[in-house]
Amino acid sequence: MSVDLEHYLIVGAILFAVGMYVALAKRNFVSVLMGIELMFNAVNLTFISFSRFVESPNPLEGHVFAIFVITVAAAEAAVALGLAVLLYRVHGTISVDEMDLLKW
Amino acid sequence: MEETGTVVAFWLFAIITIGSAVAVAFVRNLIHAVVFLVISFMGVAGLYITLSADFIAVAQILIYAGAISVLMVFAIVLTPQGERRNSEGFLRLPALVLAALMAATLIFVAVDTGWEIADRPGFDETASLIGESLLDKYVLPFEIASVLLLVAMLGAIVLVRPEGAVEEE
User: Fold this and answer.
1) CA angle B25, B27, B29 (to 5 degrees)
2) Do A9 and B30 touch (CB under 8 A)?
3) What is the pLDDT of residue A102?
4) Which residues of A touch B98 (CB under 8 A)?
5) What does A8-76 look like in DSSP terms, one character per residue?
6) Is A104 within the bounds of a domain?
7) Cβ contact A16–B25 (<8 Å)
8) pLDDT above 80: residue B85
9) Shortest Cα distance from A40 to chain B (angstroms)?
10) Tell me: the pLDDT tens digits for B37-50?
11) Do B44 and A44 touch (CB under 8 A)?
């Protein structure tokens, strides 16, 4: 018995689905961000496993792409958590359900 | 011998990763959710090591388990006590259905596609090769990433700066 590409892809798929559930269903802004980070992780895991297993002239390209994904995720987290603090200051809540300023 | 170790490590880290991710979805306290998120990130770092991606594994622990989780704890403690619930909104059921469909589709594609598997051993070390390609082939995205990080840093500072902080000379 050995570990193949499919095993890693299935782990990535389940991780992505869990992150998607967290990002869509949670009411708290910070929880939504946690779900998005989980999805980033699932995508990175898939990149790295393709980089390890699949035939390619330059097998390390997946690693380079994963590094850029991590960079963008870090920038996104910083700005989004700043937004969370700002929302609390202006609105008094960070519940996603109550953000309806653009509704009417 | 080495093969058995990899298999055991893979299953261990896969269970840790997915179990903690599910715990993030179902635990009620937001601080506990962040702790489970960190455990999940660590599990992903372990999976990277089984894929012989040493540099990415270290970067994962440094950036995700270190920096981003600390940022999240900061955001939680800067918002009120009453907001520390981790409850679901009215989208709970549709989100569950959508996530299940997404998982089913992705797993079907992953299993059904005939991937071109390369028969090569894992990388010996990746850091120097990644560094070379970042400064050679990917030098433009590398520079753009630095500008992006600068803009994100300035944006975060400008967003959370108190009103009227500029007037004090």
Assistant:
1) 120
2) no
3) 77
4) 20-21, 24
5) HHHHHHHHHHHHHHHHHHBSBHHHHHHHHHHHHHHHHHHHHHHHHHB--SSTTHHHHHHHHHHHHHHHH
6) no
7) no
8) no
9) 10
10) 999 999 999 999 99
11) yes
Q: Is A95 helix (H, G, I), strand (E, B) or coil?
A: strand
Per-residue CA distances from A38 to A54, A59, A70, B12, B52 (Å): 24, 25, 12, 18, 21
**Does residue A30 belong to any structural domain of this protein?**
yes
CATH top-level class of B1-101: mainly alpha
Domain boundaries, chain B: 1-101, 125-169
Q: At what angle do helices A29-53 and B2-26 cross, to 10 degrees?
A: 160
Q: Which domain holds residue A12?
A: 5-98
Please report the pLDDT score of residue B6 as a whole number: 87
Is 70 exceeded by the pLDDT of residue B168?
no
CB B30 within 8 A of CB A30: yes
Query: CA of A101, closest CA in chain B: separation in Å?
Result: 18
Touching A: B residues 125-164, CB under 8 Å: 126, 129-130, 133-134, 138, 141, 145, 148-149, 151-153, 155-157, 159-160
pTM: 0.90
